[in-house]
Amino acid sequence: MSKETSLHGVHQDLGALFTDFAGWSMPVRYASELAEHKAVREAVGLFDLSHMAEIHVHGAQAADVLDYALVGKLSGVKPGRARYTMICDAEGGVLDDLVVYRLAEEEYLVVANAGNADVVAEALSERVQGFDAVVDNRAETTALIAVQGPKAVDVLAAVTDADLGALKYYASVPATVKGHEVLLARTGYTGEDGFELFVAVEEAPALWRLLAEAGEPYGLVPCGLACRDTLRLEAGMPLYGNELSRALNPFAAGLGRVVKFEKPGDFVGRAALAELAKADVPRVRVGLRGAGRRAPRHGYRLLSEETEIGTVTSGALSPTLGYPIAMAYVDRAYAEAGTRLSVDIRGKIEPVEVVDLPFYLRAGEPGHRPTATLNGAAAPHRKDPN
């Protein structure tokens, strides 16, 4: 039986269509996933992310244990900031990709994907042995709500006294939202500006309702997993189980930048990753642009003439761009932007072209390049700035 978040009743009242995701009953859409996607790109959307896992690591050697347990240098993160990183096995395979918040000098919050919650919690509990630190899994007592979109600041400004202008991207601050104590983080998985609010599970329904009410003047709509997937795909953000897995290492995934060999001491997977960093990566992650209306999907074969040279990992008809997009792993010889390939879509061969990631960039941010969008404007792919 699927687990339910503390917001399940709220979603039922809103008429959500549910799906099982990583053992959780989650809203896949409410009225229209296209309308929800558009709201996040043009106004603001509200997401329940309470299926994610929140694992606290605290103690005198909290920084040391995370430097050992993860591939990133978490000791270099300042209190109040966050970092995107990964946890790998001894062979360098990716167990999960994570966002880690440093809450205080001796306290961190590790946020893991729902499907890997137990794996990450168990790995951290094993790796903390011998360190003066404690791993405290608070997934059962913590809810997570996201407010994403260009009007997210307006919504939060109406309900909190927190200095939103001073809250940088990949930063967090304890805040009060109409009497609810939350950890307010400027992070997200949509390619838009926005916030994620960590709150006690018993307070989540009331918090959701007050955010929804505050967002009404700005066109806020509740959003499900379907639009969350198309939003992150447009932003070129990997999804564990699609672009990331234990069979892949960070270098194979094109995310070798997260591995920090310069940090002192050993870390799990260091020796294997050092060898992998020297090796040629046979296949690389690329973006694909399709023609027509049929989108490549996960698992579809990529061809150069009649030779299979790769596999699609995620794909959809982009609501923002109006054409099919996909991410895929292809042989290095075919990874250059502009390379023309074909994809086998249920027995029909369709043309695709290799393009740079991300597909969608918001204007006004580093890395901006012209990209057609719903409004003819452009937008940034927001990366961890650390």
TrEMBL record:
Enzyme Commission code(s) on record: 2.1.2.10
Cellular component annotations (GO), alphabetically ordered: cytosol; glycine cleavage complex
Binding site for substrate: E196
Domain Aminomethyltransferase C-terminal per the UniProt entry, residue ranges: 283-360
Cited function: The glycine cleavage system catalyzes the degradation of glycine.
Record's keyword terms, sorted: Aminotransferase, Methyltransferase, Transferase
Gene (UniProt): gcvT
SUPFAM superfamilies, sorted: Aminomethyltransferase beta-barrel domain (SSF101790), Folate-binding domain (SSF103025)
Protein name as it appears in the record: Aminomethyltransferase
Region named Disordered: 366-386
Family classification: Belongs to the GcvT family.
Top-level taxonomic group: Bacteria
All copies of domain GCVT N-terminal, residue ranges: 7-263
